[in-house]
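Before relying on records like the one below, remember that each one covers exactly one chain. Contacts with other chains, cofactors or solvent are not represented anywhere in the record.
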Amino acid sequence: MQAHAFTSLKRYASTSIYAHRGLAQTQAENTDLAFADALKAGADWIETDVNTTSDGAVVVFHDPTLDRLSDSVGAIKDMTWEQVRAVELKDGGTVPLLEGTLRAFPQARFNIDLKDAGSAERIIPVLLATGAQERVRVASFSERRLRQAHRAAQKAGISLSMSASQLAVSLFYLASRVAPGLWASLLPLIKHLFLPFDSLQIPVYYRLAGRNIRIADRALVEAAHRAGLEVHVWIVDDQRTMRELIALGVDGIVTNHTDVLARILGRSE
């Protein structure tokens, strides 16, 4: 892959369903049970998060601390894997090890948000150990974390699919306001700022100066597709908004309600 060739994953026939932390209606979020329910309901991708323990274990968990989802307190980065794995979650189950989850779902595709600097580097050995690099995309608001993961992947001799950082998304949005094809002209000037990415992962709106600014609109989707990029929109649970985004031609919708989106897409009874 050329250093600044912005690649894209294989396109699918319709909008992909990204299950936000699994299907956590009757199961604890970001657990293997929630992932199994999401896949059964029709998810194309599992959207999940990772943090790193003090002894370097990459665990599937969104928050930096255990406080919200368990009766335990403390930061994951200050705990060993043995301590974390012993914690019972309030909604049932325990915190999974990423390697175990990737092995438990050998056919599933995972969109993994790197929540700390440790996971940016340590995720690569996990992907190699499980052979999962071809079915994983890494994501982060932070360009720095993406660069850490990219360097680790290069050192290991593997390619890594990535979504755009927050800064890259912001610049792409501004370019899309001017002209759908402007990004290609800007890229030679700003290529040193960003790593190759295959997708823009965005909310429907950004809150700025007390106003809601629509981000996921036709101008951005058309500009992204012209640049060979996918557009994934988060987090969408409203059926009307789901239908609007599908009509716009977005490539993925991140939702807490995989089952609802699957029905709208005609993939369930």
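Residues 117-130 form the longest helix (14 residues).
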